[in-house]
Write a structure and sequence with these properties.
Layout lengths: L6 H9 L3 H10 L5 H33 L5 H27 L7 H8 L10 H6 L3 H22 L6 H21 L6 H4 L8 H19 L20 H20 L8 H33 L4 H15 L8 H24 L8 H14 L10 H29 L6 H6 L1 H6 L12
Helix pairs in contact: 3-4, 3-7, 3-11, 4-7, 4-8, 7-8, 7-10, 8-10, 8-16, 10-15, 10-16, 11-12, 11-13, 12-13, 12-14, 13-14, 13-15, 14-15
Length: about 450
């Protein structure tokens, strides 16, 4: 007779199979030259940063494909402008706030805000850290920009440009760096054992909470919800672009998760980065398959847009812990993320929360799932602390974002006029169209 396996042991088998292999490889790892480690660690930051920067193109293509043709130019503009704003604000304020050198005292925080950090040639601090300060700054900046990209898609097709850019200044300069410092800046959540390897909550759910607050204040697009309560579909302009954007994001995610290992200077680090790549890809694949099956069962037909979001939800879900799970565990984590990406959409419609690209199900909801499931594979994490982190970050980002959106709405208005929305933001906000009419010359 087979011996019954305890449920906790079964979870460990499903989610954390590579643990023994990791311990064995750690014992056999040879010593590494410090200069060589410095070079490879720095290279990992730079290559990871390149890939995450490429995700900005993925967000732009995804959103351009999922909005209607009359709003494509505006959406493209928002993506390049938010990236540039993040690049300046994270240097000016955010980087210092995220990594406060002397702790979170009021005088120190004020000093950090008004003393942008210089990225100098290699110094003693760089050598001790094992990588260059410039490479670290560049890599962390890309995460900051990603958080703002999440907000862009949700609020598409009805928000004014200037209020959006003002909010982006505050999000990238203050909100994101402060909440991210709670974990990655050795803040209070880190001290309690909160674990978010590459940012399922710190980046993705945070962006989702900011987007949710904006969507509540902004309201749905005209005609999205009928008087009888039914939802009016508003198909995107170009599913080819949306699919291309998804593949670009999938590629960039290897830098997002792999670079978050923060080291490539040893045999063990190289093995861990490769394991992260495999688990990241497995979760995305499972998210796609789960979304295919779920849309078929729920709607009777496969929905490509939800399948694309299934891939992204799988990626978001595995981001909180892409190293510790087994491949099978990564498949389970990603599959649940894919299901979440589908089932949350009709729930939002019932609440009349209009999310144009599905960023709230993908980044907020799948991000929460990925963060909460971390202890299943990482024995150093606890479910209660993970839940505490999600609640604290969610409350901080949502409440502050909601207040800022309300202030912007009261002072300058955040929504375009009804006429401008009907005409399209490309004409009303930008004065140019992504797909101008072509008149054949006679």
């Amino acid at each position: 007779m087979l011996k019954k396996i305890p449920s906790t042991a079964m979870v460990a088998v499903l989610f954390a199979l590579p643990a023994a292999a990791q311990e064995a490889s750690a014992e056999a790892a040879p010593a590494v030259n410090a200069d060589v480690a410095f070079i490879f660690n720095t290279l990992l930051f730079l290559i990871g940063g390149f890939l995450v920067m490429w995700m900005a193109a993925g967000f732009a293509m995804l959103e351009a494909g999922l909005v209607r043709s009359k709003n494509v130019t505006t959406q493209l503009f928002k993506n390049i402008s938010l990236f540039a704003i993040a690049g300046i604000m994270f240097w000016l304020i955010g980087y210092n706030l995220m990594y406060p050198s002397d702790g979170w005292t009021i005088p120190n925080v004020i000093g950090q805000i008004f003393s942008p950090k210089s990225i100098d040639p290699v110094g003693a601090g760089d050598a001790a850290a094992g990588y260059s300060a410039g490479s670290d700054f560049f890599f962390q900046l890309m995460f900051c920009a990603t958080t703002a990209s999440i907000v862009s898609g949700t609020l598409a097709e009805r928000i004014k440009l200037w209020p959006f850019m003002i909010f982006t200044v505050i999000l990238t300069g203050l909100i994101y760096p402060i909440e991210a410092s709670w974990e990655w800046g050795e803040g209070w959540l880190d001290q309690r054992g909160f674990s978010d390897f590459a940012g399922s909550t710190l980046v993705h759910a945070a962006g989702g909470f900011a987007a949710l607050a904006g969507a509540v204040v902004l309201g749905p697009r005209l005609g999205k919800y009928r008087a009888d309560g039914r939802m009016q579909p508003m198909p995107g302009s170009n599913l080819a672009l949306a699919t291309l954007g998804t593949f670009i994001l999938w590629l960039g995610w290897f830098g997002f998760n792999g670079g978050s290992q923060l080291a490539l200077g040893s045999v063990n680090d190289a093995a861990d980065v490769s394991r992260i790549f495999v688990n990241t890809n497995a979760a995305a694949s499972a998210g796609v398959v789960a979304a295919i099956v779920t849309t078929q069962l729920m709607f009777g037909k496969i929905d490509l847009t939800m399948v694309l979001n299934g891939a992204l939800a799988g990626l978001v879900a595995i981001t909180a812990e892409p190293l510790a799970p087994s491949i099978f565990g990564s498949l389970l984590i990603g599959a649940v993320g894919g299901v979440i990406a589908v089932v949350v959409v009709p729930l939002l419609d019932k609440l009349k929360i209009d999310d144009v690209v599905g960023a709230i199900p993908v980044h907020l909801c799948a991000g929460i799932w990925g963060t909460l499931i971390v202890p299943a594979s990482n024995g150093d994490a606890s479910y209660s602390v993970q839940a505490l982190g999600v609640i604290a970050i969610g409350a901080f980002v949502f409440v502050l974002s909601y207040a800022i959106w309300m202030i912007l709405n009261a002072t300058m208005g955040i929504r375009v006029s009804e006429e401008a929305e009907i005409t399209g933001l490309d004409v009303s906000e930008m004065g140019m169209e992504a797909y101008p009419d072509f008149v054949q010359a006679k």
